[in-house]
From TrEMBL:
One of its GO terms (molecular function) is metal ion binding. Residues 4-187 form the Calcineurin-like phosphoesterase domain. Belongs to the cyclic nucleotide phosphodiesterase class-III family. This is Metallophosphoesterase.
């Protein structure tokens, strides 16, 4: 059954970026052998080309297949162009037939703006890919930087997707199984119908809220249940959510 790692918000280039945190996280990832690692944006702090060059040194150390989407920080200073040169596609898919899953990555960033938008073109792309995954009986995972549902304990809501309602409707109609995001540096899980909306914390930055620690999520998909685990930088673990798997085997 699929075992997924979800990391986000590296913020390489920031004063608050700590190299030891990302190195330790990568070591842990390589020890637990996820089937895929999904990275939901803000891999850089300013979108500078040199920051992307530094990021790729870390990403190349991850042994599992990875898919990366940009965040709002990555779209600064023409960072969208640097992303395409170094990381490659800003949105696309990663299909793993062996484990029966498909990751649909979306670019929710807007150049030099903090708020997010998916837009009609990518929405149409997402809907088609969800339909294809359904026809192939694949587990459907959406990955984007900006959250679609507001995240608790993050203060006044300013940066939710500007087209969140339309995207949410498409996700419900397309029966997305998991929707992964970052941006707020606050791990959380919302359940809506049979979809889990999972937000990751920051994996390697000290831009933290309250007493939270840098962290990443792992998602264990079994025939009977799905379990989402928070993996903290101090080595401790916490179950964020565990719920019945009603998707596989339909």
């Amino acid at each position: 059954m699929p075992f997924i790692a979800h990391i986000s918000d590296l913020h390489v280039g920031s004063f608050n970026f700590k190299e030891e945190l990302i190195i330790n996280a990568i070591d842990e990832l390589n020890n637990i052998h996820p089937d895929v690692t999904i990275i939901t944006g803000d891999i850089t702090e300013n979108g500078y080309y040199l920051e992307f060059q530094e990021v790729i040194r870390y990403l190349d150390q991850i042994k599992s297949p990875i898919i990366v989407v940009p965040g709002n920080h990555d779209a600064r200073h023409v960072g969208n162009e640097s992303f395409e040169v170094i990381i490659k596609k800003r949105y696309g898919t990663l299909k793993d037939k062996k484990h029966g899953l498909k990751v649909i990555g979306l670019d929710s960033s807007e150049p030099d703006l903090d708020y997010g938008r998916v837009g009609r073109s990518q929405q149409n792309f997402m809907e088609k890919e969800l339909k294809k995954a359904d026809e192939e009986n694949l587990y459907k995972i959406i990955a984007l930087h900006h959250h679609i549902i507001p995240v608790p304990k993050t203060g006044r809501e300013r940066n939710v997707l500007s087209d969140a309602g339309d995207i949410l409707l498409s996700l419900m109609k397309g029966r997305a199984d998991l929707v992964l995001s970052g941006h707020k540096h606050m791990p959380h899980v919302w359940m809506m119908e049979n979809s889990a909306f999972i937000t990751a914390g920051t994996v390697s930055s000290l831009k933290l809220r309250g007493k939270t620690l840098s962290s990443f999520n792992t998602i264990n998909i079994e025939e009977e249940f799905i379990e989402i685990i928070l993996n903290r930088a101090d080595g401790t673990h916490k179950c964020l959510a565990k719920y019945e798997n009603t998707c596989l085997g339909d």
